[in-house]
């Protein structure tokens, strides 16, 4: 019997940085307490969410642009039964990476 083909090596999973970890790094860099840095990040998240809900685009220089995009209603298929179903129109948050960030990675 022939040997089975070798499986390709699994990609290394990228580390996930949490808001708490960002807060700790921000606190060290800006000489803030962890509590202050965490509050700043929470406020930033809240402000971004508020403006996205209003329909505004949020430009973060050097990072990219966040905006809400509308998805039209469409026909889909239930994978379990194969039955056609109608998927309602919805909104999603889209992110477009800034050129500077794209080139630096």
Describe this structure in words.
With 105 residues, this protein is α+β, with helices and mostly antiparallel strands. The chain folds into two domains: 18-54; 57-105, HU Protein, Chain A. It is built from three helices and five strands; from the N terminus they run H-H-E-E-E-E-E-H. The protein has helices at 19-30, 34-53, 99-104, and strands spanning 58-60, 64-71, 74-77, 84-87, 90-97. The strands form two sheets. A three-stranded antiparallel sheet has the order 1-2-5. A two-stranded antiparallel sheet has the order 3-4. Strand 3 (74-77) and strand 4 form a beta hairpin. The chain is extended and about 60 Å long. The mean pLDDT is 89.
Descriptive keywords:
105 residues; 26% strand; HU Protein, Chain A; alpha+beta
A few lines on this structure:
This protein has helices spanning 19-30, 34-53, 99-104; strands at residues 58-60, 64-71, 74-77, 84-87, 90-97. Strands 1-2-5 form a 3-stranded antiparallel sheet. Strands 3-4 form a two-stranded antiparallel ribbon. The protein has 105 residues and is of the alpha+beta class.
């Amino acid at each position: 019997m022939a040997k089975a083909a070798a499986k390709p090596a699994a990609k290394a999973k990228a580390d996930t940085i949490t808001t708490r970890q960002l807060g700790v790094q921000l606190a060290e860099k800006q000489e803030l307490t962890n509590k202050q840095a965490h509050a700043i990040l929470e406020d930033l998240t809240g402000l971004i969410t508020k403006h996205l809900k209003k329909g505004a685009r949020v430009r973060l220089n050097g990072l990219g642009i966040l905006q809400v995009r509308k998805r039209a209603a469409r026909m889909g298929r239930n994978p379990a039964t194969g039955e056609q179903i109608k998927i309602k129109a919805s909104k999603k948050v889209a992110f477009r990476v800034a050129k500077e960030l794209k080139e630096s990675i």
